[in-house]
Amino acid sequence: MASSAASPPTFSLLPSTSTSTSASSRRQPFSTHLSFSRSPVALRSPIHRLGFAGAAADPLLAIHVAGKTSAVVGRGVRGVVSMAKKSVGDLTEAELKGKVVFMRADLNVPLDESQNITDDTRIRAAVPTIKHLMSKGAKVLLSSHLGRPKGVTPKFSLAPLVPRLSELLGVQVGKTDDCIGPEVEKKAAALPEGGVLLLENVRFYPEEEKNDPEFAKKLAAVADLYVNDAFGTAHRAHASTEGVTKFLKPSVAGFLLQKELDYLVGAVSSPKRPFAAIVGGSKVSSKIGVIESLLEKTDILLLGGGMIFTFYKAQGFSVGSSLVEEDKLELATTLLAQAKAKGVSLMLPTDVVIADKFAPDAASKIVPCSAIPDGWMGLDIGPDSIKAFSEALDTTKTIIWNGPMGVFEFDKFAAGTEAIANKLAELSSKGVTTIIGGGDSVAAVEKVGVADVMSHISTGGGASLELLEGKELPGVLALDEAVPVPV
């Protein structure tokens, strides 16, 4: 173990020569000194903003969002990029008019103690698909879960969502007290064309998460076709995400699910280069798959958050009382070696903000990453690291961000995360494709107030991670195949 007075570690940052965008020559030798490529990157024309607000405000954008997304990020065939799944936009009016559509949405919004919605982002994200179905004369049965109920739990009822849904859709949304059974059958039969009926929390039944075939059959019983727009649950094989597709045809993706796939699959598989990923969070163990997958695809990989201290300790540096996963030290060393072997410019912070306790009012100071004293813990990246990360990102054309740089819930240790959010907003306005991969990163860009300028903000935490890891999502695999359509 090196002492705290040891020299700061040196990690590969950017190659000293400009990065080539060709597949054969884009990798540069791994460097152990700090150097930056300052050659300017040609900026593309500004892209259309495809965030929730933009999609909800522009019906035409919503209807053609998948195709427009592909065109924006420079890919050829939408179907291939989006895992070749049929979209609700591919259905004709004749296929929808008068038909009962079972639509799975992710309306799992936060509620306060008075059952008031505190963040309606997920509701607004579902609006374009619902409005499209309404405009084609479909009768929409809207299904979702809320929270983690154990059986019928009144506080997890979807009833508080009805007023906001009705306001956003411009119609009075009906509500059932169950998600299957006679009441659903009766109210579905009475729905007018363009009507919307919100079914009660599908997770009130344990059969939902067990993907019970009989329960799936009951969910599908009153519908003619299926639309899945719930990206946040697409990584789970549940009755309402996978099981119902065995009983309803066609089974297609909604616009939100399509857009998630276009960005998260398309941008990773065929990004504009240089391509950078920023991965943060507290533990290496939760991001192993993501880091390993991104090492195969990125030119630059920036690491922040609590996980960095496991990497530091693996390199022999004192980390004080910072968070360390002792059983992942060998893995951290392996990942560094993999980056070197693949020619990826891996970047770890060179300085950190440390605290004498884990609290918002803790005493703090900035030290080199090699000089964390005993009894102190790192809670954010330092100003030198912010500057170096920003300079690295200046050279890129595509960026994915998943995980904060520090304990951004505490204002005193939010500078690193907020600086990254602001940097991505700046680059997005210059034409760089910026993808916020769910979870705390989304909370960060919303806190800073720059969410609406990012190219794409993912609605799914776990689903985003699994896609970035290269895993297949059961809720997506179950949907109908589509013939690739050039855009």
Automatic annotation (TrEMBL):
Residues 1-25 have a biased composition (Low complexity). PROSITE patterns: PGLYCERATE_KINASE. It catalyses: (2R)-3-phosphoglycerate + ATP = (2R)-3-phospho-glyceroyl phosphate + ADP. Its cofactor is Mg(2+). Residues 1-31 are annotated as: Disordered. InterPro entries: Phosphoglycerate_kinase, Phosphoglycerate_kinase_CS, Phosphoglycerate_kinase_N, Phosphoglycerate_kinase_sf. Its EC number is 2.7.2.3. GO terms for molecular function: ADP binding; ATP binding; phosphoglycerate kinase activity. It holds the Pfam family PGK. The keyword ATP-binding applies. Belongs to the phosphoglycerate kinase family. Monomer. This is Phosphoglycerate kinase. It comes from Dioscorea cayennensis subsp. rotundata (White Guinea yam). The lineage of its organism: Eukaryota, Viridiplantae, Streptophyta, Embryophyta, Tracheophyta. The gene is LOC120277467.
